[in-house]
């Protein structure tokens, strides 16, 4: 019997990883040499002649759905995403109530993708547009399998969570700023309800749902890939673009004019519904809710980050909201 060099790198439950390693050795066609935890239930695996990502899924349905969607995307011509490997002797891989899939390992560039760089922001939008244009053909095929995205419902839930967390948030953030944030959310949601057709009608695509910078990966060959499809849903492209706009606005110093220079966004910035939606402080509510849920707000580095996006960027964001309100007033024929 050949000896195996069992090496684990990264933090995590060593006992769990040892059990998982033993399970995989029995279930996969390829002998494993090394496992490195990337995040919870995601590992970089080095096997004989092949590196791959081992990723856990909450259900077999989610695993199969993502595998099928990615396979369909590749078939339709979208190649800038990972593939699923079939390495199991007898699928599925089920270990301690988690289903695991083997994903293509994409060798990354040392020059990471970042929204800080203008060229990356442009190329990220181009890739997202290509993703939408390709998967539009798949919407009917997956309409019964992928849920519809409810923009207003998602933000109403986020607002309720934020309101429930105010006793803690109020300890760190001045009351005046909190009241202003809530007024932005109220103005935004009321405006979206008036223009709800913008998010319910028209072209539908498969939304990525999490267009954060870390889900755009620059490969060693300099190509950019889209990764992590856990939050896919069906809706209008606006929802992905709204999230992308919210992610890049801090790097544009919350400039309405600079945001409108991106052609993929400019086509929506004459729509009142899209303008109302840009005002919703989704990033602030999301990050505060997450920090309180995970209790990371007790960490000095985390609270500093939260205060930077909440208080440090307040003046720029306040001026941005004023620009949005000025636009709406002009569209409604009112003086400002």
From TrEMBL:
InterPro entries attached to this UniProt entry: CotS-like, Kinase-like_dom_sf
GO molecular-function terms, A-Z: transferase activity
Keyword vocabulary terms for this entry: Transferase
A Gene Ontology cellular-component term: endospore-forming forespore
UniProt entry tagged with the keyword Nucleus: no
PANTHER family noted in UniProt: COTS-RELATED PROTEIN, SPORE COAT PROTEIN I
Name this protein carries in UniProt: Aminoglycoside phosphotransferase
Organism: Cytobacillus praedii
């Amino acid at each position: 019997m050949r000896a195996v060099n069992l090496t684990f790198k990264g933090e995590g439950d060593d006992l769990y990883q040892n059990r998982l390693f033993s399970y995989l050795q029995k279930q996969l066609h390829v002998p494993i040499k090394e496992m490195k935890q990337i995040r919870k239930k995601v590992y970089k695996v080095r096997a004989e002649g092949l590196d791959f990502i081992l990723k856990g899924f909450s259900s077999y349905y989610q695993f199969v759905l993502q595998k099928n969607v990615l396979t369909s995307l590749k078939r339709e011509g979208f190649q800038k995403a990972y593939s699923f490997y079939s390495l199991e002797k007898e699928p599925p891989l089920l270990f301690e109530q988690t289903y695991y899939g083997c994903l293509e390992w994409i060798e990354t560039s040392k020059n990471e993708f970042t929204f800080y760089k203008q060229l990356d922001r442009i190329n990220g939008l181009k890739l997202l547009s290509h993703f939408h244009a390709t998967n539009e053909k798949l919407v009917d095929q997956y309409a019964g399998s992928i849920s519809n995205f409810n923009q207003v419902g998602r933000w109403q839930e986020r607002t309720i969570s934020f309101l429930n967390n105010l006793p803690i948030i109020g300890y760190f953030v001045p009351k005046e700023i909190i009241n202003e944030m809530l007024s932005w959310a109220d103005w935004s949601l009321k405006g979206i309800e008036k223009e709800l057709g913008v998010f319910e009608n028209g072209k539908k695509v498969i939304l990525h749902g999490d267009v954060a910078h870390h889900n755009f990966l620059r490969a060693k060959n300099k190509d950019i890939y889209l990764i992590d499809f856990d939050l896919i849903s069906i809706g209008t492209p606006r929802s992905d673009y709204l999230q992308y706009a919210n992610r890049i606005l801090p790097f544009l110093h919350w400039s309405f004019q600079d945001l409108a220079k991106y052609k993929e966004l400019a086509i929506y910035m004459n729509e009142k519904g899209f303008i109302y939606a840009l005002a919703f402080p989704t990033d602030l509510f999301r990050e505060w809710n997450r920090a309180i849920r995970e209790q990371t707000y007790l960490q000095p580095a985390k609270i500093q980050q939260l205060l930077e996006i909440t208080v440090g960027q307040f003046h720029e964001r306040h001026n941005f909201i004023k620009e949005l309100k000025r636009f709406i007033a002009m569209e409604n024929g009112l003086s400002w």
